[in-house]
Amino acid sequence: MSFTDSTSQQHAPGPAGEWFPTCAVFDCDGVLMDTESQWIKTVEHVSGQLGIERPRDIANRLTALPAGQIADALARESMPAEAPEGELAAHSRQILRRLSELDAERISRGVELIPGALELVEELSAVMPVAVASNSARGILDTKLEIAGYTPFLTTWVSCDDVPEGKPAPDMYLEAVRRLGGAPGRALTVEDSAPGSAAALAAGTRVVVLAEDPATAPRGHYALTSFTDPGFRAQVRRWTAAAAERLEKTPMTGGPSAADGHMME
Length: 265
What we know:
This protein is of the alpha/beta class. Helices cover 47% and strands 10% of the residues. The chain folds into two domains: 4-35 and 112-261, 3-Layer(aba) Sandwich (Rossmann fold); 36-108.
């Protein structure tokens, strides 16, 4: 079976059979939509324009980092080692603008959703608040979520512009859970990268890792190859049933709307 539950080995809060989430936070690229491959192409293209050798390799190496850190890395790769910090910073800002422009162009032509992701977000949002936490810049993240149709089901979303440090630091997940009015120990998070899962674990959440091979997936509490996996779907039904029962006893209080929450500093 492709769905793997390793909560007993991860020291998650409470027995695996009793735990259920009261809020959920999803990564974006590679989890909700197949934009990661587009982003890699964007970084590769800009790296090539800068004259960096082996642009594909550097794109693959940097892709999971926040956009600002990628721009900093490309600036250092493309300028002399003795370049002043001021010139490096200015060059990095130019690179970041170019990355953002190209990414926006690609996204505007449409995005491909990860199978089962939209349905999962909609299902969870019916019984708990749901957020997105992404290393994407704020403007790009807004565009992705709107074009892909996720915004009606989200309470808020957090970009790399909204926190001091992007993934693998826990800041982004802690901020998302805070905005949802939840507790990290009762938050379900969904990731696909090592930096992302490290951030979610450091924040104290329970982590589902989406990977081609669960045996080699980054560390998490659960691993799966598809959101449509029967074992995972059965687990989600148990979680949502428990969350619905809790909701009947304690109705959710109003939180920030998607229109306002994602812009909170």
